[in-house]
Structures are given as structure tokens and as C-alpha cells.
Amino acid sequence: MVVTPRDLEAFARDSEWFASNYEKIRGNGNKVVAIKDDEVLVEGETIEDVLMELEKLNVDAAFLLIDVIPSDDTSFIL
Questions:
Q1: Which residue from 76, 66, 69 is spatially nearest to 24, judged by alpha carbons?
Q2: pLDDT tens per residue, range 15-66
Q3: Which of 65, 21, 25 is nearest to 54 (CA)?
Q4: HEC readout, 16-77
Q5: Is the dihedral of CA 67, 72, 75, 78 positive or negative?
Q6: First to last CA, the chain
Q7: Predicted local confidence at residue 76, as pLDDT
Q8: Which end of the chain has fewer CB within 10 Å, C or N?
Q9: What pLDDT shows up at residue 57?
């Protein structure tokens, strides 16, 4: 797999879009989302669910932003 500057730019744009739209996307949380071209392409309860849906769509997960949105009651210890 060869990653081009264009791939990196698209990933950066999707990352910015995700951060800007996090509250809208989040809902009740507890999900995994795959983002491409400033939209949620697939969402599911687990990464496995998302990867299966991407496979059905014939989309390579290597070139997507995939992130976990925790539930509202999740705490992080830093």
C-alpha cells in the first residue's frame, strides 16, 4: 500500500470535520464510526461491525478515519 500526500490531506480534512461535528455525530455514544469525505460512511456498535460493512461496500478501511465514540458514562484516567 502506498500512501500519497493526497491521502494524508483527505485524512486530515476528515479529522477536522469529525472534530467540528463531534457533538452532532455523537448522539448517545457507544459506537464506532468510519468517516470519508466529510461524512459518516458507516457506523456500528463494534469495530468488527464497521469493518464488515466497509467490506460489503468494497471500501478499503486503510484510507478512512475510524474512531470510537464512547458512551456518556465513560470515564478516562489520564
A1: 69
A2: 999 999 999 999 878 999 999 999 999 999 999 999 999 999 999 998 899 9
A3: 65
A4: HHHHHHHHHHHCCCCEEEEECCCCEEEEECCHHHHHHHHHHCCCCHHHCEEEEECCCCCCCC
A5: positive
A6: 34
A7: 67
A8: C
A9: 96
